[in-house]
Automatic annotation (TrEMBL):
Residues 34-147 form the Reverse transcriptase Ty1/copia-type domain. It comes from Punica granatum. It comes from the Eukaryota. It holds the Pfam family RVT_2. This is Reverse transcriptase Ty1/copia-type domain-containing protein. Residues 154-169 have a biased composition (Basic and acidic residues).
Length: 223
């Protein structure tokens, strides 16, 4: 591992040992090289999903296996435990792996399973609580609706002058909305409609605060 300290000046050249064939992280083509290395998945009967190249699947008889990839983290699910274990053994021969057992959490989402009812839930209570504390909303009064009926929003409320836009640039609106959007993408599509790109003060309060308070009221909800 190379750790840069201070400001780099000029051009940096590096000589890699001939026996070291591992791609450097953050190189321009490291993602391409990683996916090329995963090309052997097709030899195991796995197909790459056209909609998401980080998703591989395999169907056989009345069973299936799905493999999800995020950087170098893998999440494997399937209807046949024997086939899942077989795939794990095959992958362990190709990669240095650590089997963490039944999935409990991934990418800020907690995974709860009800095997009796045959249901699986994704929860983000810890993530939402962290966001609330970050924007000092952890003690605010929760609400139960996506947007309060007393807010009357219009395009006329958007920032119009350069001074208004400059003021909005100092407001952590983008950071707050970005934090909320991650929950929206994962488990909370009900808060998607209130995200704007050119908010004024009123819109900022309406969208950001209301969404945070709604998330507060429903931190235990999942999908």
């Amino acid at each position: 591992m190379v750790v840069a300290r201070g400001k780099k000046e000029g051009t940096l050249y590096m000589t890699v040992n001939s026996h070291d064939s591992i791609a450097l992280a953050s190189a321009n083509n490291d993602a391409e090289l990683w996916h090329c290395r995963l090309g052997h998945m097709s030899e195991k009967g796995m197909k790459q999903c056209n909609a998401d190249h980080c998703c591989y699947f395999k169907r056989f008889d009345n069973s299936f296996i799905i493999l999800l990839l995020y950087v170098d983290d893998m999440l494997i699910g399937g209807s046949c435990a024997q086939e899942v274990n077989k795939l794990k053994k095959q992958l362990s021969k190709q990669f240095e792996m650590k089997d963490l057992g039944e999935a409990k959490q991934i990418l800020g989402m907690r995974i709860n399973r009800d095997k009796v009812a045959g249901k699986l839930f994704l929860l983000q209570a810890e993530y939402i609580e962290k966001v609330l504390k970050r924007f000092r909303m952890d003690e605010a009064k929760p609400i139960s609706t996506p947007m309060g009926s007393h807010f009357k929003l219009s395009k006329r409320d958007s920032s119009k002058s350069d001074s208004e836009r400059a003021h909005m640039e100092k407001t952590p609106y983008a950071s707050a909305v970005g934090s909320i959007m991650y929950a929206m993408v994962c488990i909370r599509p009900d808060i998607a409609h209130a995200v704007g790109v050119n908010p004024a003060d009123m819109l900022t309060k309406a969208v950001t605060l209301e969404k945070l308070k709604l998330c507060m009221a429903s931190t235990g909800l999942g999908t």
